[in-house]
């Protein structure tokens, strides 16, 4: 018995050491993203089948209709995941602005009567051929990509707060206004999360966040009391017993379902809340069905998967060299976790009901496809970690898996050169003609500078010999030789490598140990 107890810490220590060694592998982040995406997708399909079987059998006569539709959308989402994994990073950067323009146009079109479809009081959907599309879900990923491109490029070139705020904030406000006109308050909250995360990870000063969060809270209070159903939701959250069969009905039934689950649950498919006791059991309140059928263990496993996603996203963001990938991965992590926190919060009664879905688990076609597309970009960023790039180039020659998947090799990131703060007359370029060096056109003179003549005497004090007098072919005579740029002066701006620019020839007189700068005020006009 004692031997078993002494051996147990060793087994746990060996397992943790093995897991730590696996995490140190170059492709660990990529494998983590794949595993989390697959587990959440499979769990979501199973729970959608269980939660929707009763309602779908009543509606269409088949218990599998919602499951089949969701499986189709998840399949399309994994195709989008694969495409995002194949896209070069430079292609994603070039198309980010196009994506935000298209999503803005779609948000405007959905407000037109006859084009947009109203569902649950919000005109947020396009419907055609039996399928529905929600453009606000596209706006989330479009805003995250466009903001990461803008702030990623400006983070290298400038640290100005004005450049961080413009044009990102005005463009985001246009999207916010269109979403508020639908009205879709829950999506608006997620878009605020995305904007704040972009600016936070870009390094915007804290004072701007104090003002911005204050303005957001003020707008939220106004919007909460602007519509009657939002006011009823807020009052039912504050006083749940006032209307148990009305505005508080969903929240109370979800808590009853969680209480029935206990520690191990009632087993898969044996929920009682899905028998039309809990509305939207397959969508907004699917976590209550998970807690009822799988118990505390299943609910904790779901929360653990999202916790692992937090670790993976921040790990990829910390290891990424490209500022665009670093900002997008960190922002997407905040987006997914913020949406998850709100969904779990109103299911367990900590927040008022808002109608946000649980990512990759709740039923929803547009959300599943675009969330998996976003996960694919995160996996693409994981392949662009410095160690992963080297490992991918080695695996391309030794392994058949990359050749079978036809994944392009990740490219090394080359940072752009920072823009100069002031024009350099020797740098050339448009509007700055290249100046000829004075030594190229100056005739030879006697003395130690161009060969021939007597060597220069060392200057000194107290009657020491001075340098001989030479004619100045540029600006007249002075005592110590031609007055040309750089005669004895400091080299000025340093270039990479510590020397002058490659196109500026080194003044040969700087190599003379006895040469000194001419005294100020003596024939130095023009400098």
Q: Indicate the low-confidence ranges by residue numbers.
A: 424-506, 521-527
Question: What's the alpha carbon Rg, rounded to whole Å?
Answer: 34 Å
Q: What is the number of helical segments per DSSP (H or I, 4+ residues)?
A: 17
DSSP helix fraction: 55-70%
Strand content: under 5%
Quick one: biggest sheet? 3 strands, antiparallel
- Assembly type: single chain
Structural class: mainly alpha
Shape: globular
Strands of the widest sheet, in order across it, are 1-2-3
- Mean pLDDT over the full residue set: 79
The tally of beta strands, per DSSP, is 3
Along the chain, the helix and strand elements come as: HHHHEEEHHHHHHHHHHHHH
Gap between N and C termini, in Å? Answer: 91 Å
Region (Disordered): 409-527
EC number: 2.4.99.28
Biased composition (Low complexity): 455-471
GO molecular function, one term: peptidoglycan glycosyltransferase activity
